[in-house]
Amino acid sequence: MTQFDFNKTTSREGTYSVQYDGTEALFGAKGLEPFWIADMDIETPEAVRDAVKKRLDNGIFGYTMWQNERFYGPVKNWWETRFNISLNEEDIHYAASVLYTVGEVMRQVTDEGDGVILTTPSYNSFPNLIKGNDRTRVETPLIYDEDKREYFLNTEEFRELCSREDVTLYIHCNPHNPTGKIWSEEELLEIKNICKENDVYLISDEIHMDFVRPKEDFVSMVSLLEEGDPVLVTTGLGKSFNLASIPHSYYITKDRKITKDINNAMGSRYNVSTASSLALAAIEAAYTECGDWIDQLNDHVEGNFQLISDYIDEHLSEYLSFDIPKSTYLGWISFEKSGLNAAEVHKALVEVGGIAVSPGKLYLDDENNHFRINVASSRTRIEDGLERIRKTFEYLSK
Ligand SMILES: Cc1ncc(COP(=O)(O)O)c(C=O)c1O
């Protein structure tokens, strides 16, 4: 079996990467080491690059259809071989991006001013979409269980919020960004039933689905779908294969009405219904040839998380607590036990540590006493990041 090297350094200079070139404007300081936005320092697998190059060699990039066996086949193959789920072609639909899909479903199934539920901490683009579409954010904080070291839904509160007249949509995130929680089948079923009983539409954003360790622990909402369910699952390869700048996504649903409404919007309202030819080439190669690659990448990510956990135990246990997440390449690190002022910590990470990580408040973290760190990078960079974090807390504790 080919062994892949995830420690290689590839320069992003001249690529206008948001992670590197966008950091100074966002954090207000020069020369920071960035670990914030969710893309990888890791090259897309060679098989995917070869397929894109081959497509480039054709030389014509006109309007392109996704309704063909070279899209459906690989998608079905991936779900079958990775998650043991057999998909029907009629349930699979290409769309411009995951967040486009979330926004479009919101516009279709809710009215202006309606309440949209988010579990907090929440991926920051969800509140942005709610605000941008003039809907109202309704939050239910996840409860952290100290013994199990895991986050859980407050089911009673969730049920109560769903029963409110003004609440019409819940955006579920599985695997969960930023906590790395993966949801059990029992939890998913309960959520789905509560939503259905209360006429609350359910979107499940599963874009991080390929980063679950072990992969067998992932339960997709897709496995619970029944004909006509008011549920839509959106996902893509943007995270898994580092393709965020080759826009694409796909969604899976058995709700024929929403499919028709999204098709109409993509066709007549926004004119975004054709596919990216490069994305289609990438999807085909990734979903037929790159299972080993993503497995090995998960081992690398796990190794980086272990390094962080060991480093915290050895040097930073007075200040930080960290649970290795079962999913994603995003670490959710708490500095609650340091007792330090949150604003001072976030400021010092930038000004003393010279590191750009995402502050908890971005994710509606009540106390702002966490930060999110992206570990999809080389081991050396993670070591450098850890030294910067240590420098920050040693300075603050003086
Ligand atoms: C949960 C989640 N959904 C969606 C996205 C973005 O997806 P897209 O670029 O396809 O809109 C991200 C990116 O970080 C994410 O973490």
From TrEMBL:
SUPFAM superfamilies per UniProt: PLP-dependent transferases
GO terms for MF: cysteine-S-conjugate beta-lyase activity; pyridoxal phosphate binding
CDD domains recorded: AAT_like (cd00609)
Aminotransferase class I/classII large domain segment(s): 41-389
A Pfam family assignment: Aminotran_1_2
Coiled coil: none
Top EC class for this record: lyase
Residues in the signal sequence: none
InterPro entries found in the cross-reference section: Aminotransferase_I/II_large, Class-II_PLP-Dep_Aminotrans, PyrdxlP-dep_Trfase, PyrdxlP-dep_Trfase_major, PyrdxlP-dep_Trfase_small
Cofactor: pyridoxal 5'-phosphate
Keywords recorded for this protein, A-Z: Lyase, Pyridoxal phosphate
Protein EC: 4.4.1.13
Family recorded in the similarity comment: Belongs to the class-II pyridoxal-phosphate-dependent aminotransferase family. MalY/PatB cystathionine beta-lyase subfamily.
Name the record gives this protein: cysteine-S-conjugate beta-lyase
